[in-house]
Design a protein that fits this description.
Protein name: DUF1272 domain-containing protein
Distance between the termini: 27 Å
CATH topology: Herpes Virus-1
Number of strands: 3
CATH class: Alpha Beta
Low-confidence stretches: none
Number of helices: 2
Strand content: 5-15%
Shape: globular
Order of helices and strands: EEHEH
Radius of gyration: 12 Å
Strand order of the largest sheet: 2-1-3
Pfam family, one: DUF1272
Number of domains: 1
Organism: Sphingomonas naasensis
């Protein structure tokens, strides 16, 4: 199951699990659409391809909450 990280690792933008617009690599490094575009859809951590992260909503989100651990280092 995806961790569904709550923020962009590059700029700190909030990325709620039930909203579209987050991008992840195979290691779940997470970025907003603007940062993913600026990074040419390549993860700066592992070099992997950044892809659209699926959303999680409703009962799925209630039963399997998103992570609250923020990754933005500022």
């Amino acid at each position: 199951m995806l961790e569904m990280r709550p923020d962009c690792e590059r700029c700190g933008t909030d990325l709620p699990a039930d909203d579209a617009g987050a991008f992840i690599c195979s290691f779940e490094c997470t970025f907003c659409a603007e940062c993913a575009d600026a990074l040419d859809d390549r993860c700066p951590n592992c070099g992997g391809e950044l892809m659209d992260r699926p959303t999680r909503a409703g009962k799925a989100l209630a039963n399997n909450p998103a992570s609250t651990e923020r990754k933005f280092k500022g």
